[in-house]
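Example 3.2
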Amino acid sequence: MSSASWDWLWNGDEDVATPFRAGAESGGAHEWRSLSLWLATAAMAITLPLHAEEDLGAMWGTAAEEARYYPIVDIPITAGVPMRPGSFEVLPDGRLAVGTRRGDIYFVQGAFDTPPSPQYHLFASGQDEIFGLSWKDGAMTATTWGEVTRISDANGDGIADRYDTLTSDWGFGEYHEFAFGSKHDPEGNIWVALGLSSSYESHNLFRGWAVKVTPQGKMIPVCSGLRSPGGVAANAEGAMFAIESQGPWNGCCSLKHLKPGGFLGHPASYNWYSFVPGMKAPALEPNGNSRMGVEKKRVKELVPPAIKFPYIKMGRSISGFRLNQTGGKFGPFENQFFLGDYSLSLILRATTEQINGVWQGACYPFREGLATGIMNVEFSPKGQLVAGGFTTSRQWPVRGSAPFALQRIDWNGVVPFEIKEINIRKDGFLFTFTQPIDKAAATRPDAYKVSTYTHVYDGGYGSPEVDHTTPQVTEAIPAADGLSVRIRLDKITEDHIHDFDLSGILTPDGRHLLHTKAYYTVNEIPVN
């Protein structure tokens, strides 16, 4: 079987018929929606025992070593609090806000203490699958299945009493049509990534699109071609990205640039271009059984994934992600993305760079061994990484066994020996490390193992790795300070993941890298 994506989220538990806020829809519409969700859940549940047998793949095997630098801290959840975290925000007073699958928003005092001493306060309820939270100008903006809502406490008693819909200008009708929202961008907009209908189709308005919502509530369609996104955030340069799950037209999970006017790969959402003034549908649709590198030359609007995450090796159902801008409080990985994974209960790192006007970059292992399926992450003012999520009673397989959890990853101040970042060069790559390397060992070409592959670009679900090549390292040149090395290859292949194994790289005192693997997605090769 293939990626978990988000197909599991309505696979049955006590939350199936979560009610909307009073007045949000008529009783008849609500009953129809609950019935349709129940029927979809029941149909899916018939096949779920087969999913439970799926192999989640080998673990990295580095959890014990990771804990020497980044210990996991449990944040206790008070008995009786239905805490299934789906989104996070940090309030101006330092409390953690948690939006839940059930549609509640809790304010948590003490989540960042050492040890944590959390106190939970219910701020708002009656929403529906909160997968985006952002605080601005004294109010919380929540992104849910059907709308973006500004939620505020007008009378100051600590309980929300105003729910102002900013927009609900997209369609909604069935279980797969999730919505994932960003933080406010510098102009005050919220960016929303809208999942398709049933993974393969777009039955309702703008399903499969990314849109942005202005502070005044105007919804602006940005780009088409998403399938089942799981989070939205900006990189250090301010470019917006969404994470995408493996599935139809997506050979593996990937990070996609939300380029205005772009087409991100899944053609089901072509049918809504006529609703976007000034934006024309692409003249061509992608061919099946092809390659992304071939089709991006045919379909000029096609935006290739910035980063592809090799399936199972680097995530299976990647979820919410955040940019590390803690000013060094979380170690040596400033301005890098940290991403959760639902099925494998782990955290990944990723870096991006723009080459020839196209975003691309690399992904790296970071931390495994979390307690449950990770739905989202958030950095605290102290530089801790909060991670949380849940499993469901009938579900795609999840490595972490806890039904729900709220945890924290702290940096203890000790720098691990890691690949800090990979950058492409016209004839090879530059590796930067967190500690000096043994320059004699790093000079040997056989210290680097490199392979490349891509995926079939097709409407089928997922893809094996195909078109393998084995480039040869012709030269390796360490920097004088030992913190980086430039390697030259006999060939770089566009549209391929470049799979690096740096097991041969050591520190001067003979220590190996904590994680020896890293993966760079080549969309473009620099001209200079």
